[in-house]
Write a structure and sequence with these properties.
It is a single chain. It contains 18 helices and 11 strands. The chain has about 475 residues and is mainly α. Strands 3-4-7 form a 3-stranded antiparallel β-sheet. It has a two-stranded parallel sheet with strand order 1-2. α1 links the parallel β1 and β2. It is elongated, with a radius of gyration of 32 Å. The chain starts with a strand and ends with a helix. Bound molecules: glutamic acid. Glutamic acid (GLU) binds next to α6.
């Protein structure tokens, strides 16, 4: 058996769309689960779309998500160059061969002539006008410096058929296809040509890409056949939808790897979630490391139907990854967000992180989750009302002076000590500890939901601040 070779062939557009990342991931998983090689090729023949730094972004996104490629522009390999704009001479050579084999021809048609081929519905199909030119005429016009393109010569009748490993037999009538341009007037190839030449010369055995190429693949097969080359195996991947009607698209601006990283999603969680967009392992596991995915990957787990990108599920998965971190790892990842919050410079950020660790799903939410902790301002006194603990404003008014007195007497302000002393005091004075802690927590935070209980919050803000807040709340209650 030939060694499996797959490739990821992105165009450098300036972002790593999650759909692209999924293609890269599946190509990586397929290669690795079959002991094969995964190759990166940069498809930059559309020079008008050149974006500064875009290629570097592809390299870094793949590395950050763990998708190390065996060959590529920056790592080398035996089949280079791996950047299409550096392969112009190769395409020119093969285009000539294809012309000699009758699979392509020169076309000199002007823009105006092409426009005149547009029908009343705005559709245009090239009419093979230049296919009729004699060899001599073609040579004469080229020698005279006339601009030209090279077009593929597609039969006008017949049906082309191939097997896609996901979608089964695909039949396309040649009449539906057009004599597309293979080499543009600037000498650059189009995708239609370059993908065939490169996949063949780079020894790609399995072509893995989006379904948008499902119906143009017959054109590529025609070239493989004309050259007498073996066709690769095709694996087209289902579309990713934003909702029932819209495709997930870079235009929405929220589908980029980088944006999710900035929002505070962990790279491992993103790549894990992306894996689930169209594939499920036999055992239906959801949380998987990359090497577990390699172990479990198989094509029969890929679905034909579009998958819907579900940020709620991504959040959940991210939360799982966050909870699995050690406190120290979490602190390090959370630090940039903690530093952006209002508590920065006020409290020990390590302690804040420890409180937040199990309560955060996306790191970017950290500031909003704790900004309120920086300062106590007037709050809704109804928060004191709690059925289970039988508390309300009146109970708070009565308990707070006692709590104040107890707290004043405590010097070791660790959570454990605060908890045991205050529970003891409550028991001595016949106060239910649930009521004491409820009232105290509301009084020092002014929040219904907090990332820790009363004593955890007090330990975090310290004795002086706790007493100050208790006084503030007593005044508020007596207003
Ligand atoms: N450059 C193409 C794209 O970005 C690659 C398609 C393929 O994998 O063949 O869509």
């Amino acid at each position: 058996m030939k060694k499996v070779r797959t490739r990821f062939a992105p165009s450098p557009t300036g972002f790593m769309h999650l759909g692209g990342l999924r293609t890269a991931l599946y190509a990586y998983l397929y290669a690795k689960s079959n002991g094969g090689d995964f190759i990166l090729r940069i498809e930059d023949t559309d020079q008008g779309r050149y974006v500064d730094g875009a290629v570097e972004l592809i390299y870094s996104s793949l590395r950050e998500s763990g998708l190390y490629y065996d060959e590529g522009p920056d790592v080398g390999g035996d089949y280079g160059p791996y950047v299409q704009s550096e392969r112009k001479a190769i395409y020119a050579e093969y285009a000539k061969k294809l012309i000699d084999l009758g699979g392509a021809y020169y076309c000199f048609c002007s823009k105006e002539r092409l426009e005149s081929l547009t029908d009343e519905n705005g559709n245009r199909k090239y009419d093979k006008h230049c296919l009729k030119l004699s060899k001599e005429e073609v040579e004469r016009r080229i020698a005279a410096g006339e601009p030209y393109v090279i077009r593929q010569n597609i039969p006008t009748e017949g049906t082309s058929s191939y097997e896609d490993l996901i979608y089964g037999t695909i039949n396309v009538d040649y009449a539906e296809l057009e004599d597309n341009i293979l080499i543009k007037s600037d000498g650059m190839p189009t995708y239609n040509f370059a993908n065939v030449i490169d996949d063949h010369l780079m020894g790609i055995t399995h072509v893995i890409r989006g379904t948008e190429y499902l119906s143009s693949t017959p054109k590529y097969n025609l070239m493989y056949d004309t050259f007498g080359w073996e066709r690769p195996v095709y694996i087209h991947l289902p579309t990713i939808m934003k909702d029932a009607t819209r495709k997930l698209s870079k235009r929405y601006g929220d589908a980029n790897f980088d944006d999710f990283v900035k929002k505070g999603y962990l790279k491992e969680a993103i790549i894990n979630y992306v894996a689930l967009l169209g594939w499920a392992p036999k055992d239906n596991s959801e949380k998987m490391t990359l090497s577990e995915m390699v172990e479990k990957f198989s094509l029969d787990g890929i679905s034909k139907s579009p998958s819907i990108f579900d940020e709620v599920k991504l959040r959940w998965l991210n939360g799982e990854y966050i909870r699995a971190l050690s406190d120290e790892e979490f602190y390090e990842l959370a630090l940039p967000y903690l530093e952006k919050s209002k508590v920065n410079g006020k409290y020990d950020l390590k302690k804040v992180a420890a409180l937040l660790h199990t309560r955060v799903e996306v790191l970017g939410e950290i500031p909003e989750k704790i900004d309120w902790l920086a300062e106590l301002t007037e709050y809704d006194l109804n928060l004191f009302a709690n059925k289970k603990n039988k508390t309300d404003e009146a109970v708070a008014r009565e308990l707070l002076p006692k709590i104040y007195e107890y707290v004043e007497g405590i010097d070791d302000f660790s959570n454990d000590n605060l908890y045991s002393v205050l529970s003891g005091k409550a028991a001595e004075s016949g106060i239910k500890s649930g009521a004491l802690f409820w009232v105290m927590r509301i009084a020092i935070t002014g929040q219904g939901v907090t990332p820790g209980g009363a004593t955890e919050m007090a330990a975090l803000i310290g004795k002086e601040e706790t007493l100050k807040r208790l006084r503030f709340s007593m005044e508020l209650l007596n207003k």
